[in-house]
């Protein structure tokens, strides 16, 4: 049997919904799932994670159907009960770690029972991994929902290579030190042979927390944990460039149009020099959606000459709807969209087209290829793959990317219009600059970014991580035999 990589994440790339016994499968949304999916499809791998439904809310026949559907996709579903999801996923993962790691300290809600559930669910993942593990396999754990898992695996199987990649920021020591269970979390992560982050800053913050909280000896790229050396490095995640680029080319050659494309074309024909601004995210308070809308309002007030000439297509996919902050945000966004449309609309024009749902890949491509500007304004974002997807889809290299400095991806995109998402005026000026930017300038900016994403695509990212994991594991073996 060939050696495989076991990919482990809270969520599988397939998201199941059950309606009256009928099992429907949708692709999972979010950078982790969309990015890792293409790696998984093209490699010898098995993906272990949650399929999107509570295990105690379905019957055995449905569970069996889900298992079969998962096996087809080389996936193993981890059954999580309603209570486990409440406490481990909505609770500790998304009401402590997510807000804190994105610097929303005031949203962190510490609850001992959620922490206990987090530990138990990490153990459950460890058991399922061990059941599926063969000699020579490697394990690649992903993201903040599973921070304790690396050490849990190491305790049972010190011989196995374990890599860990964090898809969200790692906050500064001053933030991280506020977590009541900070030592256990760091020790859990340090069970990995290699820890990867999107940027050097996140890596540095992690090493500084280890050195100051655990007092372990650290170097630029490594940490001494007893007799083990744990490697730490940055690997900025990328996208399947060819998939987006080729889909954009195909889309432009296609004759049939979707109703969305027809409406976009009608708008452009009706107002010949009109421009479309696009934003795509999960509805999350880290994404700066409210700030973006307020900046648009400021812009339309300040520059009335753009009335009827610009439209924001804002796509927000529902996310973590059981967490109160997401519910409040949804309300705030509904109100802001209503206010802006109410204030500026004319009989033939509304400034904001708001879609609160997930769109199929083809329609995402339509939006990427039809939009003159991408307006991405996160308050804090581990990476932001949408920025890369937009640039990859611009086959003629036109289009302007307005991008928050607070996104990990900004480190790789000096040629975008970088903004501070808390500065309305700066964002409004960036909108004006983007809408008036000559085509030659757009092309010269995007050329550089596109070249980089094409060369450093998601395959190269995974290859680099795996090579570094092999090197770290080699070091481990040398230490063991010494
Ligand atoms: P995050 O991982 O925080 O959600 P990213 O920007 O890194 O942020 O990744 C988001 C991913 O989800 C992208 O691949 C994007 O194409 C996809 N996505 C976001 N919103 C939608 C939507 N409404 N419909 C379909 N896909 C979406
Ligand atoms: C981000 C996180 C992922 C998560 C995704 C979607 O990308 O880094 O771990 O899967 O958001 O969020 P959800 O809670 O729906 O899985």
Automatic annotation (TrEMBL):
It comes from the Bacteria. One of its GO terms (biological process) is trehalose biosynthetic process. It is an enzyme of class 2 (transferase). Its EC number is 2.4.1.15. It catalyses: D-glucose 6-phosphate + UDP-alpha-D-glucose = alpha,alpha-trehalose 6-phosphate + UDP + H(+). Keywords: Glycosyltransferase, Transferase. GO terms for cellular component: cytosol. Pathway: Glycan biosynthesis; trehalose biosynthesis. GO terms for molecular function: alpha,alpha-trehalose-phosphate synthase (UDP-forming) activity; trehalose-phosphatase activity. Belongs to the glycosyltransferase 20 family. Homotetramer. This is Alpha,alpha-trehalose-phosphate synthase. The chain holds residues 1 to 482 of 732 of the full protein.
